[in-house]
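Course assignment 3, question 2. Fill in each field.
Student: A.L.
Task: Predict the tertiary structure for the chain below.
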Amino acid sequence: MISTAPTSEKVAAVNHVELHPYFQQPDVQSADAEHGILTQAWSPIGGITFYPGPWREDRKNVMQDPTIAAIAATHSKSPAQVMLR
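Answer field:
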């Protein structure tokens, strides 16, 4: 079906997308930057707290990710604070 909705010449100021350490969407961020659009993270701590990914049954808890924990410890922050940055 072809849309007959009116179009606009205005460019969005902000693109609110799912964005966190496990889903960084580099193509979306790059396209936004090219057009002067701010990328704003939706669900920056993760859409879910456990990611099956390649870990299959040994699912990974984002709050216990060793890389994120190391960054947090280095900066005296919590893993959640690191992911929000």
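Instructor remarks: The mean pLDDT is 82. The CA atoms of residues 15 and 39 lie 5 Å apart.
Grade: pending
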